[in-house]
Amino acid sequence: MTRSDRQNSYSRYKRQAESPNPPEDDLPKEINTENTKSDDAIEPLSKRMKMSNINMKTGGAYIPPARLRMMQAQIKDKGSEAYQRIAWEALKKSIVGMTNKINSSNVAEIVPELFKENLIRGRGILTRAIMQAQAASPTFTRVYAALVAIINTKFPEIGELMLKRLIIQYRRGFRRNDKTSCMSAARFLAHLLNQEVAHEVLILEIVTHLFANPTDDSVEIAIATLKECGKKLTELTPKGMRAITQRVRDVLHEGQVDVRVRYMIEVYFAIQKDGFKDFEVIPQELDLVEEDDKCTHLINLDDAVDNQEMLNIFKFDPEYEDNEEKYKAVVKEILGDESDEEGSDEESGSGDEEEEDEESKTTENQQIIDMTETNIVVLRRKIYLIIQSSLDFEECAHKLLKLELKPGQILEMCYMILDCCSQQRTYEKFFGLLAQRFCQMNKVYVDPFTVIFENSYKTIHRLETNKLRNVAKFFAHLLYTDAISWMVLASIKLNEEDTTSSSRIFIKILFQELCEYMGLTKLNERVKDITLQEAFEGLFPKDHPHNTRFAINFFTSIGLGGLTDELREHLKNLPKTPIIPTAPEDEAASSSSSSSSSSSSSSSSSTSSSSSESEESEREQRKKKLQKRKKK
C-alpha cells in the first residue's frame, strides 16, 4: 500500500468516526436485522472510546486531574455509573496523594483535608495506601500510626479494618517466610499499640508466636517489635512483660540463634534496663488524640478476620447522592463550618492578636493551684509502675532517681515505697534494700522516712495484721542498717495507758526482727548505749514501778527478757516506801470533830500503806524464791 492510499483510508476512517450514519457502501453485506439497534442508539466512535477507557478496571491510561475534572463536569447525571467511576478515580488519587506527603510536621494540617474526602467510601483505598506507604518508609511508621489513631476516633471501623489487614499481612508473611512483610506489619501494630488503637493482648500473642519456635528471623522481628512498644507494654502489663523478658533470656541462654541475633538480644536488655529512654511511646508532636477519644480494638491473632478486598475496587452505588450528603453532614460536625470561621478570623485578626497579648501578660502573673491532686496521683502511678517493672532494687533506685523529684515529692515517693511493701503478702527484702539505698545515698531521704515512722506508729491501729507485720519488718531493716536514726524510737511509750494491742504487736515484731538481724547480745549493747538512752527511755521506763513491771513482763513474754536486766536491777534497788501507822480506834472515837476533818488524809494514808505493804510482801516472796534456788 502506497503512502497516498494510506492517507485516503485514514481520511475515510476519520469521516466514518465523525459521521453518526456511515454510508451504505461501507456497511457489511450481511446484517442480522434482529440484533441491530436503531440509528439513534448508535454512538460516535470517539465517545465510545472515551467511555471504554473509563470503564476499564484501572481507569485506562493516565488522565491528568484537570482533564478528569473536565470529564466529570461534562456528565450531568451524578447518579450514572460513568460519573461515579470518575469520582472514584479522583477520590483514589486524592487519598493516595495526601497519604504520600504526610509527615510529623504537617499531619495536623493534612488530616482536616483528608476528612473532606469520603473516607467511608474510600476506606479500602485509605488503608491500602497507608500500608503501602509504611512498607516503603518504615521510619515514618510513627506518623502513619498517629494518622490512623486520629481517623479511628471519628471512624472506628477504619481503625478496625487497618488492624485486620495488618494481622492478615503478618500471618501471610510468616507463612511465606517473608521477613520484610512480617517485620513491617509487626512494627506497625506495635505503634498502633502505643496509640492505643490495638490492644496489648495482640502484641503479646505476636511476640509469643515468634518465640514459639525461635529462628534468627523470628527473634529479630520480635526484638524489633519489643523495642518499639516495650515501654507501653511495661506500663499496661508488667506481668506479661516479665514473662516475655524471661522467654527472651531463655532464648539467649539456649544458644539456638546466630551470634548476630544474640548481640541484638543483649542490646535489647540494655535498652530495657535504661527504661526504653530512646524509644518514646508517643513523640510530643504526634500526641494529637485526647485520652477520652481513644478507641481500642481487641482482635486476637488467631481470629478469623476478613480484609474486605472488595473495598479496594469500584462498586456502583444506586444511592450515591444521598450517601454523599450524609457524609458531608458528618464532616461538618467533625470539622465545623470552616468558611464562616475563616471569614471571622480575617475580620477579627488584629483584635485577636491584641487580646492574646493581654491574656499572655495576665497569665504570666497567675499561678495555677491543682486542688484535685492530679499531679500526685500521676506521680504515684509512675512510681508504682517503676517498682513493679524493676528486676532488682538497684535498677528501681536508678529509675526513680531519673524522675528528678522535687523536694515536696520525695515524701510521696517514700510513702509509696512503704505502701507497696505493706501490700505484699509477705515481707520482701526488696523494699527494705531500696529504702536503705536512698537513705545511705543522700541524707535528704532520711528525714522523710523518720517522719513516716512516727506517723505510721501513731496510726498503726488502722492496719491489718499482715500489713502491720510488713511495716514493722521494713523499719527493722532500716534500723539494723542504720539507714535511719534509732532516735525515732523515742516516740514509743511502752506502758499500759499509751499502747494498744496493735502497737504492742508492732513493737514485738520490730524487736524480734532486730534480734534476728543483730543477735541478742549486740541488741542489748545497743539498748545500753549511753548515747541512745533518750531513744529507749519510753521503751524501758523507770518513771514508775508499775510501768517498769509492764515493760519487763512484755519483753519477757516475747522471748527477749535479756533486754530487761537493768530494769530488774532498778526495780530491786527502789527505796522502800515507809509504812504509815494508823491511829487507835478509841482516840478516833473520842475526837469526833478531828476525825471528820482528817477523814480525807486517813483514807489517802491507808491507800498508800496498803500499796507499800503489797510491795513489801512481793519483795519477801522474791527473796524466798531466790533462797530456794540457791539451796537447790
UniProtKB/TrEMBL annotation:
<feature type="domain" description="MI">
    <location>
        <begin position="378"/>
        <end position="494"/>
    </location>
</feature>
<feature type="region of interest" description="Disordered">
    <location>
        <begin position="335"/>
        <end position="367"/>
    </location>
</feature>
<dbReference type="GO" id="GO:0016607">
    <property type="term" value="C:nuclear speck"/>
</dbReference>
<feature type="compositionally biased region" description="Basic and acidic residues">
    <location>
        <begin position="26"/>
        <end position="40"/>
    </location>
</feature>
<keyword id="KW-0507">mRNA processing</keyword>
<dbReference type="Pfam" id="PF02847">
    <property type="entry name" value="MA3"/>
</dbReference>
<feature type="compositionally biased region" description="Basic residues">
    <location>
        <begin position="622"/>
        <end position="632"/>
    </location>
</feature>
<feature type="region of interest" description="Disordered">
    <location>
        <begin position="1"/>
        <end position="42"/>
    </location>
</feature>
<dbReference type="InterPro" id="IPR003890">
    <property type="entry name" value="MIF4G-like_typ-3"/>
</dbReference>
<dbReference type="GO" id="GO:0003723">
    <property type="term" value="F:RNA binding"/>
</dbReference>
<dbReference type="GO" id="GO:0071013">
    <property type="term" value="C:catalytic step 2 spliceosome"/>
</dbReference>
<dbReference type="InterPro" id="IPR050781">
    <property type="entry name" value="CWC22_splicing_factor"/>
</dbReference>
<feature type="compositionally biased region" description="Low complexity">
    <location>
        <begin position="590"/>
        <end position="612"/>
    </location>
</feature>
<dbReference type="GO" id="GO:0000398">
    <property type="term" value="P:mRNA splicing, via spliceosome"/>
</dbReference>
<feature type="compositionally biased region" description="Acidic residues">
    <location>
        <begin position="336"/>
        <end position="359"/>
    </location>
</feature>
<dbReference type="InterPro" id="IPR003891">
    <property type="entry name" value="Initiation_fac_eIF4g_MI"/>
</dbReference>
<feature type="region of interest" description="Disordered">
    <location>
        <begin position="575"/>
        <end position="632"/>
    </location>
</feature>
<dbReference type="InterPro" id="IPR016024">
    <property type="entry name" value="ARM-type_fold"/>
</dbReference>
<dbReference type="Pfam" id="PF02854">
    <property type="entry name" value="MIF4G"/>
</dbReference>
<keyword id="KW-0539">Nucleus</keyword>
<keyword id="KW-0508">mRNA splicing</keyword>
<protein>
    <recommendedName>
        <fullName>MI domain-containing protein</fullName>
    </recommendedName>
</protein>
<comment type="similarity">
    <text>Belongs to the CWC22 family.</text>
</comment>
